[in-house]
Amino acid sequence: MTAFIKESLFVLFKNPILFLLPILGSVISIIVEAIFAVELYYNNGNKVFFPNIIILGLFFAAFMIIYFQLNLSKQSVRLTALKNNNLGIEVLELFTIYSIYSLVLFFIGSYEGQLRETFSPKSDPFSLYTFKIATFQGIINIIPNGVVLILLSTLTSFLFGGWLVQYMVINDHPYRILKSLMRVLCYSAFEDLRKDILLLFLVTLVISVLDFVLTNMAVIHVSNTLQLYLYQFVILSLIHSFYAPLFLVWLFLIILSGSYSSA
Fold it and tell me: pLDDT of 113-152, one tens digit each?
């Protein structure tokens, strides 16, 4: 089971460019989040809305970063077989998977925001958006719902990440690929492979726990609410920018293993 970890780390060590796009994405998200939070802070309790063109631009920019990151990860593991000759169809189908993934994340994020609002002592948009639980009792109270959110986030990232990577490997129809993933999770013939998948799932679960903690709890002792929110957002973005390349390379190596590819 540790072979995939070692090989993934070796691939990242030999290809540091794999960190470039995730870091770029983190920088963009930090800048956008800082602008949005500061606007909320100085907007006297009123809501802040970005123009639709900016939101759409950020959405497509995020997709392009993921698309090129998938291709870089594919090249880093020396995958050259089964190329898709129709680039337009490949981009469209990957965009479809990514759009479904984004929609699911939106609903999960909305539920998390509503959950956090129940603990906020203030009802203005800035407080509701940036509130962090700082009391022991509050942390205890949010744990049950937090467990559900963490599992949902982990399963969503894991399944859609596997769906995207599997498509890059075999270039099959997205829905048939998802069916193939389900076979691996259910059939006894893939028991050894499931152990490798379980290890990656557990590591991803730890990242989701960190995500939930930094998003909803006051970890850093800073009195200023805006500074606390931005500091923890930066830390979380850096964690994601370093884990994302490892996650994708690890998935590629698992999916490229003989038993999975034959699924």
Answer: 888 888 887 777 888 888 898 888 888 999 999 999 999 9
The model carries a pTM of 0.85
> Residue 188's domain spans which residues?
2-261
How buried is residue 149: exposed, middle or buried, by Cβ count under 10 Å (0-12/13-18/19+)?
A: buried
Specify the number of domains making up the chain. 1
Q: Are 248 and 69 contacting, i.e. CB atoms less than 8 angstroms apart?
A: yes
Q: Are 136 and 93 in contact (CB under 8 A)?
A: no
Instruction: Report the alpha-carbon distance of residue 100 to residue 213 in Å, rounded.
Output: 25
Question: Per-residue pLDDT tens for 36-80?
Answer: 888 888 887 677 777 889 889 999 999 999 999 999 998 888 755
Residue 98 and residue 128 in contact, taking contact as beta carbons nearer than 8 Å: no
Q: 95: which 2 tokens?
A: 């965009």
CA distance 27 to 238: 9
